């Protein structure tokens, strides 16, 4: 039912914009900061309020739909993707950035039906950039079409990644080892803006050739995945093979050549799947 999904997508854009205003306003006030899994895994009252706002509004308009939301899962809701139309929500992607006023913070809303992503909306609210993509209809930023870079040479590429929030020394060693190998290929540079969703939009925009990370969640990558693939890019698992939204690992690249070259250098480490209770 294409009309219905367009309706849902229009609503997602409206909600993302409204949420962005709340996030920008909150930056002027004292943030109520709390910790989740560790002292570097942060959440604020704003994350929780924005998620509630989005879910309440969607429930009113689309009462049959399901949700996977970062803060609802943190509060004990199940993280299960069924065939039902499902909104996959990160109310504040880049919470650490938000807490520090580092200006890359996004509202990320993905939407899947029969476990297939239908659209993605990422609003980088401090930059005021609205990234949107609908399956088969292209990707856009503030209405302008997006295309991935056509670079095929890894040594002329910028690769984005993040350190994540796992401080287990063995994991940290693997993260550094992968980065060192990629840096010494050599690549032009390694970057990371602190938000998976925005990193993926930068791949879609052609500014970086690839982004990879292990340890993120389905709500960090669902919307960005649609935006990357509609901009002509590819999505993969960090050990090759197709992207699995629940696996907590992703490679998003401009093309297969760059994706495979990056994958060769990544040292994978275990992360408990999102759909394991
Ligand atoms: C963040 C991701 C980022 C990752 C952080 C965190 P959050 O999401 O966007 O890529 O490195 O550890 O997962 O928690 O700000 O929504």
What keyword list fits this structure?
277 residues, alpha+beta, Fructose-1,6-Bisphosphatase, Chain A, domain 1, D-Maltodextrin-Binding Protein, domain 2, 2 domains, 7-stranded mixed β-sheet, 8 helices, 36% helix, globular
CATH fold descriptor of the largest domain: Fructose-1,6-Bisphosphatase, Chain A, domain 1
Can you tell me the CATH superfamily of the largest domain? Fructose-1,6-Bisphosphatase, subunit A, domain 1
- Count, helices: 8
Largest sheet: 7 strands, mixed
- Name of the CATH class of the largest domain: Alpha Beta
The number of domains is 2
Which runs of at least 5 residues are low in confidence (pLDDT < 50)? none
Indicate the overall shape: globular
Number of strands: 14
Cα-based radius of gyration, to the nearest Å: 17 Å
How much beta, percentage-wise?
A: 15-25%
Class derived from helix and strand content: alpha+beta
Proportion of residues in helical segments: 25-40%
Biggest β-sheet: strands ordered side by side in the sheet: 3-4-5-6-7-8-9
């Amino acid at each position: 039912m294409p009309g219905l999904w367009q309706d849902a997508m229009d609503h997602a854009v409206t909600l993302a914009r409204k949420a962005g205003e709340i996030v920008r306003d909150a930056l002027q006030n004292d943030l109520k900061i709390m910790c989740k899994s560790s002292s570097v895994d942060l959440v604020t009252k704003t994350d929780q309020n924005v998620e509630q706002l989005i879910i309440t509004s969607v429930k009113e308009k689309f009462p049959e739909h399901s949700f996977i939301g970062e803060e609802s899962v943190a509060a004990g809701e199940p993280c299960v993707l069924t065939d039902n139309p499902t909104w996959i929500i990160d109310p504040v992607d880049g919470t650490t950035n938000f807490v520090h006023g580092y200006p890359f913070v996004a509202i990320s809303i993905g939407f899947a039906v029969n476990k297939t992503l239908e659209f993605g909306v990422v609003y980088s609210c401090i930059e005021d950039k609205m990234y949107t993509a609908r399956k088969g209809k292209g990707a856009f930023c503030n209405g302008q079409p997006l295309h991935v870079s056509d670079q095929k040479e890894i040594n002329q590429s910028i690769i984005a990644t993040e350190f994540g929030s796992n401080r287990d020394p063995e994991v940290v060693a693997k993260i550094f080892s992968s980065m060192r190998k990629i840096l010494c290929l050599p690549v032009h540079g390694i970057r990371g803006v602190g938000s998976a969703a925005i990193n993926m939009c930068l791949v879609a925009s052609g500014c970086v050739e690839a982004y990879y990370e292990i340890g993120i969640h389905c709500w960090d990558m669902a919307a960005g995945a649609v935006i990357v693939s509609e901009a002509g890019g590819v999505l993969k698992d960090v050990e090759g093979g197709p992207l699995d939204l629940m696996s907590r690992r992703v490679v998003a690249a401009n093309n297969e050549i760059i994706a495979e070259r990056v994958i060769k250098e990544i040292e994978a480490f275990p992360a408990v799947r999102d759909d394991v209770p």
